[in-house]
Amino acid sequence: MTHLLTAHGFDVVAAVASGPELVAALREHRPEVSIVDVRMPPTNTDEGLQAALAARREVPGLPVLVLSQHVEQLYARELLADGTGAIGYLLKDRVFNAEQFIDAVRRVAAGGTVMDPEVIAKLVAGNASDPLTALTPREREVLALMAEGCSNAAIASRLHFSEGAVGKHTANIFAKLDITASDDTNRRVLAVLTYLGMS
What we know:
- InterPro entries: CheY-like_superfamily, NreC/VraR/RcsB-like_REC, Sig_transdc_resp-reg_C-effctor, Sig_transdc_resp-reg_receiver, Tscrpt_reg_LuxR_C, WalR-like.
- With 199 residues, this protein is of the alpha/beta class.
- It folds into two domains: 1-128, Response regulator (Rossmann fold, 3-Layer(aba) Sandwich), CATH 3.40.50.2300; 131-196, Winged helix-like DNA-binding domain superfamily/Winged helix DNA-binding domain (Arc Repressor Mutant, subunit A), CATH 1.10.10.
- It is built from ten helices and four strands, in the order H-H-E-H-E-H-E-H-E-H-H-H-H-H.
- The protein has helices at 2-7, 19-29, 47-58, 73-80, 98-109, 117-125, 137-147, 152-159, 163-176, 187-195; strands spanning 34-37, 64-68, 87-91, 113-115.
- A four-stranded parallel beta sheet has the order 1-2-3-4.
- Helix 3 links the parallel strand 1 and strand 2.
- Helix 7 packs across helix 10 (187-195).
């Protein structure tokens, strides 16, 4: 992991082996982004996740990208609960596609939210939410890509239409989900939380 990150221009300020070491490193360095394995010693259960959440409570909005072997809905919900963004949850096998993985790291570092498509599918499967029924199929596609952490430009590219059209769809999504502009909240994150049935 360290080699991959340094090869793509990142400065690695710490590499740790346990949850307590992770919390200490995050407190000390306050990195632009941290990449955390859910399972770390000493318990090898959810030590890494709990360390990341503890650090984010101390430093709200601290950018964290969590890697997991399997989709755990509870982990995704805990990570997204504060609604501030700068968070990601990917399955470990995504690291093998270096370009996509590095893009995810950069998006989280920039304050975005990145969710593995498999995580999104599991969360949405059991959480049909009433406000979403007002969305058109195209708006749901846009919102699904927002949930993956895609920018408007990336959504436009994936769906083959203009950024202006994405902006209109996004505005419609916010209106239909009754998400108003505020200095205290990120509307994209709130829309994604609604989509995932977590609002």
